[in-house]
UniProtKB/TrEMBL annotation:
Superkingdom of source: Bacteria
PANTHER family membership: FE(2+) TRANSPORT PROTEIN A (PTHR42954)
Organism taxonomic ancestry: Bacteria, Pseudomonadati, Campylobacterota, Epsilonproteobacteria, Campylobacterales
Protein name as it appears in the record: Ferrous iron transport protein A
SUPFAM superfamilies: C-terminal domain of transcriptional repressors
Span of domain Ferrous iron transporter FeoA-like: 1-73
Assigned keywords, A-Z: Iron
Length: 73
C-alpha cells in the first residue's frame, strides 16, 4: 500500500521508499525512515498536498511524493 492512498486519521509504518537521488535524501532528512510511524492529519481541498505527522512533527508533502512511499498498516 502506498502512502497517498491513506485517508485522514489513518496510521501506518514506512516500509520502503521507491526513489533515489535528491528526493530520497530529502525524504530521509525529513524523517521518512524505515519503520517510522506516520499519521495522515489532513488533505488539502483538492487532495494535494497532504499533511502528515511523523516523529512528533508535522510536514506537508505532495501526493506525487507520497505515492513513492510504501507503507504497512
Amino acid at each position: 500500500m502506498m502512502l497517498d492512498s491513506l485517508s485522514k486519521g489513518q496510521k501506518a509504518k514506512i516500509k520502503k521508499i521507491r526513489t533515489d537521488g535528491k528526493l530520497l535524501r530529502r525524504l530521509l532528512d525529513m524523517g521518512f525512515v524505515m519503520n517510522s510511524e506516520i499519521e495522515v492529519i489532513r488533505e488539502a481541498p483538492l487532495f494535494d498536498p497532504m499533511e502528515l505527522k511523523i516523529q512528533d512533527y508535522y510536514i506537508s508533502i505532495r501526493k506525487s511524493e507520497a505515492s513513492l512511499i510504501e507503507v504497512k498498516i
